[in-house]
Each structure stands twice: as C-alpha cells, then as structure tokens.
Amino acid sequence: MMFVMGRPATTPPCAAYATGSSLIAIPFRHRIPLWSPSWGHLPGEALGEGRRSSSCRALGGREGTTPMPVPVPRQRNVPVAETAPVGAGGGDLILLVIEDDPAGTFSVPGLLDAAGARVRIRTARNLTEAERLLTDDVHCVLVDLALPGRPQDDALGALKHVLRLAPRHAVLALTASGDTELAAEAVRLGAQDHLVREELDGRLLTRAVRYAVERKRADTAQVKLAESRLRAQENARLERGLLPTPLLEGSDLRFAARYRPGRSRALLGGDFYDTVRTPDGTVHAMIGDVCGHGPDEAALGVELRIAWRALTFAGLCGDDLLSTLQQVLEHERESDEIFATLCTVDISADGRRAGLCLAGHPSPLIARHGRAAQLLPYDDGGPALGLLPRARWPRRQVELGGSWSLMMYTDGLIEGRKGPDTKQRLGQDGMLAMINRQLSAGLDGESLLEAAVGEVRELNGGDLTDDVAVLLLSRDGARR
C-alpha cells in the first residue's frame, strides 16, 4: 500500500505544501493561493498571531493552528539550476513567482508530481522583492504577464528586467489564453517557455519548471561550448601568427622545419626557432627551448625569438648576442628558476663555413654528401641562458663543405623512449642511428623530418610529453 505523508493511498488526492522541513498534505478540493493580501505578511516571513485564522483556512488547515514559515535559503556561489540534476531522486524544485495581482487570483491546485518531486514556491509581489528572494538555490522564475489592465510594453519590460536580474536561471512567462502574441514575444526575448493561466495545474507546472531548467542548462552549456570554441580559434590564430616565417630571400639554402608542442590542442610550446639572412649574405639560424611546457613558457620563447631576430639584424652574433638575450630572459621570466637553452649557427655567404654557439643545448647534426651523419663539436659550449649572471659563450668555427644538411633540434626529439617496452631514452646516439637509416633510404628535407618525428613518437609508444622542434638547412654544392 502506498503512503503519502503517512497516509494510505486511499486518502483523497492531495497537494503538497512545504514549510521548512515539513510537508503538509492538502486535499485537491482546496486551491492553493501562492499569495494573497488577506494573509497579511510578506512571502517567506512568519505569520502574525492575530492573522493566523484566515491564513490557515487558505492552506486548508484548522483554525487556531499556526503555520510554519517558509525559510529563505542561504546564498550560494553557483545557482543550483546550473549544477544539480533537476529533481534527481525525487528532489524538490524551487520556483520564485513574481505576481503582484492585488486580488490574489493566481492559484495552483497541486504541486506534487507522480515521481514524488515537490515544487517549493517562493513569491514576490514586485521586482524589488524578487531581487531579494532570488538566491542561488532557486531553479526557476515565473513572471506573470497577464495581469488585468497591464499594457503589453509594461509586461515585457518586467520580463526583460527579470532576464537581466536572473541571467543564469530558467524563466517562465505566464499569460492569459488570448495573449498568444505576448507569449511568443516573451519566448523570443529569452524566456524558456510560457504557460497559460487557464490551463495551469500542478502537474503541468511541475513539468514546465523541470523542462525549463533543463532547457536553460542546455542553452548555457551550448553558449559555454561556443565561447570555448571561439577562444580556441582565437588562440590558434594567435599562436599560428607567432610561429616564425624564415627570411631567406637570395639564399640558395633549402629550409624545412617540424614543430610539435607537448601541450594538448596547442600550436605553440616553449620551443622556438628562426632563420634569417642578413644583407651581407650570412644565413643565421637558431633553435631554443624554455624550460616547461605551458603558455607562459611559450610566450617567453616567442619573446626570445623576436629579440634574437632584432639583435641579429642589428649586427650582433656570438657571445654579444647571447649575453643580450640573457638580459632579456632575466627581465621577462616570472622566476629566477626559469632558464632557456639555445643553439645558434651563422653560415657564411658562400655556404662552406659556419660559426656555432651552444648555450646548454644539444649540438646540431650534420650530414655531408657521401658520409654518415655526425654531431658537430659540443665540448666547449656555455651554460643555458639565465643560469649564470656573467656567463660566456665561445663561438666555434665549423667547416661545412660543398654539399651538406644541417639538422638543429630540441631535446624533445631525443628524450623519448627507445621503445614502448623500455624506459631507456633514445639519446643522441639513437637519433644518429635513426637519421642515418632514413638518409640511406633516400629521405631528405620535409620527408626526412616527418619520418624522424614520426619514428620517435612510435618508439616512445605514443605522444611525446615534451615539445619538439626540428630545423633542417641543406645546401647542394653541385647546383652552384
């Protein structure tokens, strides 16, 4: 046998009125005014002792008993309509009704649905009172637009005010049966739905509130998704614009690069590179790595790259350039623990010689025509930028030859695993062996870099956690 508030199911159908933590069963033959001036109190306030008789009759109770007040819930940071599942497990719904009819004609016969969920009602006679009662635990706001003698503009003005007042809450509009144009305009302005006064009953109201809250939650999620997509597109455009464009006009060197940030869904990481040709015919190339993988490191990498390009065009190179870059890093970094590694190469106008500077960075790899690839000398490099205040970076002269390919890279290429079943790192020796196999297979330029990055990822058993940047400059001496 089913029970409702301790009564057998044979008890006549009843509505439910919530008072504090109690639930009073009320026969459906009594209509429940949401508010009436005869109560002599504001909604949510305790009834006075001298007025309890008429109030109790309105609630279907006995004269001489004092109804419990409806408490005003505490404010919370996030509206429950945005977070908690509506009516989950038969949970209550809280409805704020804004209804200023002095006759108190709006009433609902029942507020308990078949699933046992209750609609707790909080009423306000005007917008000022509604603002006080609109706390974060309110699920929905019902605005009565069908009051006698109210012009349509005034009704819609009240709705607009409520929509501004409660942008994160579901809103329902109540109209008369003949106000179809007013109802359509209310939905167009932003109400989740409209209800017709003459057709309203407890089940319809409960269902309308439930659907309105879910619809508002879906709309909010859609707006957040659209905003997230717009931000992602803006970030992508920004990051794409910050990636370098090599300036090699007039040079016979071929350029190729591959870049894979370690951050998910990012285009830019803490690795950076650039290549420019100065008016004297020298080709300057550099590659670097800011410690870390986040957006702050990416921004610092862009600053260092732009500073390097400006200083290079200003005529600095070698130790002077790196010392100035270290000053830039020290001024722009967020903490003294941030450092950056760097490798710079200055290739002479005839393409046969180069100056090499290393600041804590892996040495480039060179492959000469008819010979296996090998690493350039790296035993006398300097420290990473930002580690020592008065560091020096010696510049080593390197003979390149007639035909060659010079590959510069960041440590993300060599710090992946040798295979998915081992923790051993690939390292520079493993990278050399891999590049030599690919060169023997006839790969060069873009195809060589694509194969190298792809094989490193495959050996690692999945995506690399570190940023990877690889730059390749090639010269074919036979073409000169």
From TrEMBL:
Pfam families reported for this sequence: Response_reg, SpoIIE
Tree of life domain: Bacteria
PROSITE patterns (alphabetical): RESPONSE_REGULATORY
Keywords (A to Z) from UniProt: Hydrolase, Phosphoprotein
SUPFAM superfamilies to which the protein is assigned, alphabetical: CheY-like (SSF52172)
GO biological process: phosphorelay signal transduction system
Name the record gives this protein: Magnesium or manganese-dependent protein phosphatase
SMART domains: PP2C_SIG (SM00331), REC (SM00448)
This protein's record includes keyword Phosphoprotein: yes
Ranges for region Disordered: 46-74
GO molecular function annotation: phosphatase activity
Residue span, Response regulatory domain: 94-212
InterPro entries recorded: Bact_Sigma-Reg, CheY-like_superfamily, PPM-type-like_dom_sf, PPM-type_phosphatase-like_dom, Sig_transdc_resp-reg_receiver
Keyword Transport assigned: no
Modified residues (4-aspartylphosphate): D144
Signal peptide (residue range): none
Source species taxonomy: Bacteria, Bacillati, Actinomycetota, Actinomycetes, Kitasatosporales
